[in-house]
Structure formats: structure tokens, C-alpha cells
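Appendix B, Record 12. Input sequence as logged:
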Amino acid sequence: MKVKTAFRQVSLSTTFEAEEAVSFMLEQVFGQNPSVFVHAEREGPELSVYLTEKRLVSDMDRNAVVQGLKSIRECGLDTGDGRLKVKRLRREDWVDSWKRNFKPIHIEGKLLVKPGWCKDKPSTGQKTVILDPGLSFGTGQHATTKFCLRQLVLLRDEKRRQSLLDIGTGSGILAIAAAKLGYQPIKAIDYDSEAVRVAGCNALRNRVDKRLQIFLSNVKGLSLKPRVKYDVVCANLFYDLLITNASRITCRVKPDGVLVIAGILDHQFEEVQNAFENEGMCIVRSRRQGEWRSGCFKHIDP
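Logged structural output:
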């Protein structure tokens, strides 16, 4: 009897010192925050993402992983053997795996991010964002995503209208959270058509699809003379994309607006900070968590 499969598990064994860096790299390649498994008989963790059966692992994906691991090693981290493993899973195996590893996240008492099967109830005044693995390209587990979610909460002023631009939306988690918090209008972009599709499904699941717009767009192609500027701009991208596109990102922030950037290894942050300071921004808040550092910037007063 033929066993019906529904998903692909893409796994990579690494070291504890490189776990966060490799995790973020896999999230950028596959658009999904990896699960982490630690086997008693192995020395390091195994990171896995779970793709729908129709989502093939292409040569481009494999090359991106190879290049990503190379960049991490150049930063002085031991990444392990770097061998990517792909296997097909039955639906029940995949779901059970995610139920063990996707935990609810509470942000500043204002947001609860959880899978649909989780029975946690929001507290008074807390908004809920539901993301299930079947639609998951980033679930908020990563330190950089948590930083962005926290800033959305802290920056929200319920007494006024605030707009948001989410560059590199992935699962749509930031845009959806922003809609729940009352930001409007909201625009989200991603260069990956599958990410755009999934973000749209997640927005529909959370009943905010009418309150935000999601577009297929590459940060490299953004105009340097935008017609619209935003109160808050979130850019959770690789540091090289942030540096080379600092002007395209900065020009979309209102004069009194805030730019939230994340996805940066701690030792790379100074270079990113310099790039945005050269565009007339100044840092107002920064946070380090593990190997990662994120920050908030504002325009320097003329």
C-alpha cells in the first residue's frame, strides 16, 4: 500500500554556537523559522523546516544554503558539516513535530502569537495572532522577529492614525500584528511569490485581509522617490541588503517616523548603523539577543 505524504522535511545539523545564525539563514532561504531538535547521541542541534509537497528544494535553494553557511563561517562560527537532508513526511508526523516545537509568544502583554491548536487565551486587552505550520513562513520564534513585534507594540499610539510598511514580510506576521494593534494603512512586500501567497492566507485566517495590502516586490527595485511615506517602517533583512538599500528604505520613513531594522549579527551591526546614519538617521534604541542585534532609528532633526 502506498503511503500518502504531504510534506518535506529539510534538515541541517549544526553546532550550538552557530545555531541562531544558521536558523536565521534557513528562515531567509525557505521563508520559515526552523524547528530545533537536540538528539542525545549527537553533539549539536538539528534544524528543520517543513515544506508543502508542492514546494521543491531547488538548486537555487541549495546554493543559497551553501553560500549562507560560507558567510557564517567567515564570521568565525563553526557551522558543522553543512549537509542538507530532505525527506518526505506523512501529514500526521509533520503536525506532531510542529505541535511539540511551536510555542505561544506573549509580547508586552499586548500580543499573543500562537498556533491554532494552542488553548492559551489572550489576557484582557491582548490581541491574538494565529499562525499554523501549514501556512507558516516565520512564526515569531526568532529573536529578530520578536524585537520587531515588541517595537510595534511600544510605538503604537492609540490616539492617532499610524501607517506601517513591512519590507520582507515572510509569513506576514508583522503586518498582521500591526493590523491587530490598529495600524492603518498597512503595506507589506516580499520578493518571494510563495511568501506573498502564504502571508495573504495568514491575513485571511486572522481576519485582517481587508486592512492590509501585500505585494510581490524586491527592495532593490523600490523607487528612490516614493509617493507615500510611513510612520513605521520594518525591515527584517540580511545586513548586506540593509546596507546596499539604506537610501531606498530610509526615504520611506516620515520625517517624524521610526525605522525598525533587524536580521543583523551583532558584529555586523556597526556597519549597518553607519549606513543608515549616512542617510541622515540616528539610532534611538538597540537590543542584543544572542548573536543578533536589532535597532530603531529616526531622522536627525534638521
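The chain has nine helices and 14 strands.
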